[in-house]
């Protein structure tokens, strides 16, 4: 089976500064790849490259065997949750509708209601379909976002920190939903996050973008003290406790442990 | 009260509302009514996007430059509409090109606005004509609308409404959900410029009817009122247009026969509609916008 997403020797630089270079990654249908790395390591740039918003400075990138195209319907995009003004006249169903035909010109005349209802039902958001987006909670909003991204039946779902500012339980709900979705639809998932633990149970492979290089492989293989120390170019310790992974850098900064109480 | 009565022997309240000779006066304002109706249609629709894109301050800024253009046109004996359109398009373009981020945008508007107003004041000070024309550009002079001006306004309205219909869906997408719209390939930057130009045209129309200082009453208030009572992408524009029509046409009809300008009537009706909508919206919000079957398990970050 041909891969849905392929990076071969992919490099990206902004001027003199290399963001990442020589990344080789092949993602098959239904695969869950988690992209990790400190701030500024180019995680979001990677998504932008897949979306066709930035051009690589070296190597190639292919979605379903073709170079990325802006607005391609093969790629779905789930952004991080953000505050929406409660007075914004957009309901959950309208946000999903954008995913169906928001990129088309002219006034809407086709009836897409059935499709929108189906998408909302698939993520369990039917109950608040008519509630303005600004009045949804963070977790509800992200469910609707996933429905929106699935509207074009994407071959690969790009998730850009979708768990940010959600509490732990909601993080687990959203990741479980994304996992269920990839099993149901066969879409591949490229999941960018700085918190590995909520996605760890579902992750097939990790792409770790570090300041001194990158690594691709199963979580057990990549997330080790030795491997990460090499990617950071400095001593980093990976601690496993109660099924969770803590990554402790020598600067005293601890990744992946932020826990919020409701 | 005595102060308000000024030097006339007519009681002040009769100067505000006076329905004697109403029948004879009505045909005289046919053009004004047409202009008001056309402007309300444009204002209601444009206002929906002004709200979504948080451009209220930009509308104000553009209207001051439109005022400068119109004043200069008056001074140089060019058609006032042409001056208003040139002024607003220049301002809209500058704001659209220079201020893509809200913070930049606001400071650019803050810089442009007093400059425009100053230019306008200068042009009016040099203008030797009637003082009523001068005052009119700031506070409205709809009574002076002749046939040809109604024609020009209708033409501008066709361009603005037609343009909005073409970009409606992607513009809505780009306005409320810019990141995902960009990911979907919607040309967000181009759309933003296109909308600024349409907005500039709408403002140029409005300046001639309600005056530069009161443009917001037809470009913001109706849409702001509509979003208080509905979140439907169909009902918000429909209600905004209805509210704008009631304010503009109702204001002109009320003002007929009075000796004060028309704009206070328009702004007051539009404000009252807003107040009522706020009240209705508040009740609705308290009861829960939409009744949910089960109290949702997902609590937490609901705003408001």
Describe this entry's structure for a reader.
The complex is a heterodimer of chains A (262) and B (304). In chain A, strands 5-6-7-3-8-9 form a six-stranded mixed β-sheet, sandwiched between helices. A three-stranded antiparallel β-sheet of chain A has the order 2-1-4, covered by helices on one side. In chain A, strands 10-11-12 form a three-stranded antiparallel β-sheet. Chain A is globular, with a radius of gyration of 19 Å. Chain A has 262 residues and is an alpha/beta fold. Chain A is 27% helix and 27% strand. Chain B has a domain of 179 residues: ABC transporter involved in vitamin B12 uptake, BtuC. In chain B, 74% of the residues lie in helices and 0% in strands. Chain B has 15 helices and no strands. The termini of chain B are far apart. The N terminus and C terminus of chain B are likely disordered. Chains A and B meet through helix 2 and helix 4 of A and helix 4, helix 9, helix 10 and helix 13 of B.
Beta-strand share of residues of chain A = 25-35%
- Rg of chain B is 21 Å
The helix fraction of chain B, in percent, is over 70%
Beginning-to-end CA distance, first to last residue of chain A: 44 Å
Kindly list the characteristics that best describe this protein.
heterodimer; A: 262 residues; alpha/beta; 6-stranded mixed sheet; 12 strands; 27% helix; globular; disordered C terminus; B: 304 residues; mainly alpha; ABC transporter involved in vitamin B12 uptake, BtuC; 15 helices
Summary, kept brief:
With 262 residues, chain A is α/β, with parallel strands linked by helices. In chain A, 27% of the residues lie in helices and 27% in strands. The relative contact order of chain A is 0.16.
Task: Write the SSE topology.
The complex is a heterodimer of chains A (262) and B (304).
Chain A: E1 5-14, E2 17-27, E3 32-36, H1 43-50, E4 58-63, E5 75-78, H2 92-101, H3 113-122, H4 138-150, E6 156-160, H5 168-185, E7 188-192, E8 205-210, E9 213-217, H6 219-222, H7 225-232, E10 236-241, E11 244-249, E12 254-255
Parallel strand pairs in A: 3-7, 3-8, 5-6, 6-7
Antiparallel strand pairs in A: 1-2, 1-4, 8-9, 10-11, 11-12
Helix pairs in contact in A: 2-3, 2-4, 3-4, 4-5
Chain B: H1 2-5, H2 12-16, H3 22-25, H4 30-52, H5 56-75, H6 80-98, H7 102-126, H8 131-139, H9 147-176, H10 178-183, H11 188-210, H12 216-219, H13 221-229, H14 235-255, H15 263-286
Helix pairs in contact in B: 4-9, 4-11, 4-13, 4-14, 5-6, 5-7, 5-11, 6-7, 6-11, 8-11, 9-11, 13-14, 13-15, 14-15
